[in-house]
Amino acid sequence: MSPLGALSQPGRPLFADAAGDIAVSFEFFPPKTEKMEATLWESIKTLEPLAPRFVSVTYGAGGSTRERTHNTVVRIQRETILHAAAHLTCVEASRGEIDDIARAYWDAGIRHIVALRGDPPEPGKPYAPHPGGYANATELVAGLKKVAPFEISVAAYPECHPDSASAVADLDNLKRKIDAGADRAISQFFFSADCFLRFRDQVAAAGISAEMTPGILPVSTVAQTRKFAALCGAAIPDWLDRLFEGLDDLPAARQLVAATVAAELCAQLYAGGVRQFHFYTLNRAELSYAICHLLGLRPKDEPHERRRTA
What we know:
Blueprint: E1 23-28, H1 34-47, E2 55-57, H2 66-79, E3 84-89, H3 95-107, E4 112-116, H4 137-147, E5 151-156, H5 167-179, E6 184-187, H6 193-205, E7 211-213, E8 215-216, H7 222-232, H8 238-244, H9 251-271, E9 276-280, H10 286-294
Parallel strand pairs: 1-2, 1-9, 2-3, 3-4, 4-5, 5-6, 6-7, 8-9
Helix pairs in contact: 4-5, 6-9, 9-10
């Protein structure tokens, strides 16, 4: 069966068979300004009724957003019904410093860490471990498990991490992270369903049984997406440039195209048996919400008394 499978029957609407039997998670970044903070919290409010498994908050290169990440994660955990996950990297910090950060998260009620090696603080420079720090994500996962019994997610690269010597070496690295105690891997974004489905098969063939969750990036602009892709090794197909050509000054049209591209990708993944999705929201709710809706996910009614308060 083709990747579209049951969702591509001739004459049948693309999402007619989407049953809402999916689990989702959302990623945010810590806001820099009051306006950005307002946008973030409006997005959180919009996406909260979809009852995601968790929402994660990113961590800037070199720990540049450490305090803002901590404040955002703790506020989500305290003031919403959501389960917040904090990103944590190895960059520019000793083992003791990272362990202290992890303990502070545990004490604040955070039980989920997204453990990453991290990008160099200066773009273009090769990664160099901190002399007294965790050398890589595998060591970080093992260290976090010694601090507390965190749920841990790690990164996976369907198109191979730029620093990996080969796809086989990349899979070996992923296996080491899972063997060190990670519970799941969240993939970097991609634009071909076949790319992820092949990767899923390769992961299984390598003896890795942990959940592989595809990361979905609804494109805001191709230029911005290219910047992200350069860091994670994702390929930008030529057809994506063509679809967004001429839309720089037409934000509403650009958003419709972005939703269409991401929704079709998710439909193909769904037809390939994928039921977990992680959305890189860029702190905007509309595109991710629309795609979840197309896949049949609807808001859950939550009792008011379940909402956490400060």
